[in-house]
């Protein structure tokens, strides 16, 4: 009977060890479940944040595209304006391949009066021309 008693104690000790190991595994599994839930929550939050940031980036991309189009339009208009203004300031009146400044005077055309008659005898002048 002593031999049976010793085997019973060994089996009881082994069952106790296995029971403690199972409890430890259950505790670790519970901790792992909590950590997985935390990760899932963090991942869900990250996904929401990523969607919001994607919307913001989409808006920025659209704005940058619009700004780029406006800038290209302004540059095109400026280049067209610069080219037409350059053509207005110079000409080749003698057809010798050299561009000269265009000179413009303001006044009344065909007044049919002599400069001498209008300015030659003025009191503020230097005398006759």
Strand-helix topology:
Layout: H1 2-89, E1 90-91, E2 100-101, H2 115-120
Antiparallel strand pairs: 1-2
Give structural notes.
By secondary structure, the chain is mostly helical. 73% of the residues lie in helices and 3% in strands. Strands 1-2 form a two-stranded antiparallel ribbon. The chain is rod-shaped and about 155 Å long. 0% of the residues are buried.
Q: How confident is the prediction overall: mean pLDDT? A: 82
Unreliable segments of 5+ consecutive residues: none
Question: What is the topology, as strand order, of the major beta sheet?
Answer: 1-2
- State Rg: 50 Å
Q: Find the structural class using helix and strand composition.
A: mainly alpha
Estimate percent helicity. Answer: over 70%
How many strand units? 2
- What is the end-to-end distance? 157 Å
Please give the largest β-sheet: 2 strands, antiparallel
Shape: rod-shaped
So how many helices? 2
Q: What string gives the helices and strands in order?
A: HEEH
Strand content: under 5%
Concise synopsis of the structure shown:
With 129 residues, the chain is mainly alpha-helical. It has helices spanning 2-89, 115-120, and strands at 90-91, 100-101. It is rod-shaped.
Features:
129 residues; mainly alpha; two-stranded antiparallel ribbon; rod-shaped
């Amino acid at each position: 009977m002593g031999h049976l008693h010793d085997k019973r104690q060994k089996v009881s000790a082994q069952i106790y060890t296995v029971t403690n190991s199972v409890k430890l595994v259950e505790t670790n599994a519970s901790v792992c479940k909590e950590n997985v839930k935390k990760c899932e929550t963090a991942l869900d939050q990250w996904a929401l944040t990523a969607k919001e940031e994607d919307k913001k980036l989409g808006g920025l991309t659209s704005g940058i595209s619009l700004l780029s189009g406006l800038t290209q339009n302004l540059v095109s208009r400026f280049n067209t304006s610069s080219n037409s203004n350059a053509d207005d300031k110079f000409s080749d009146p003698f057809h010798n391949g050299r561009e000269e400044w265009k000179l413009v005077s303001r006044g009344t055309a065909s007044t049919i009066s002599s400069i001498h008659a209008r300015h030659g005898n003025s009191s503020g002048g230097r005398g006759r021309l």
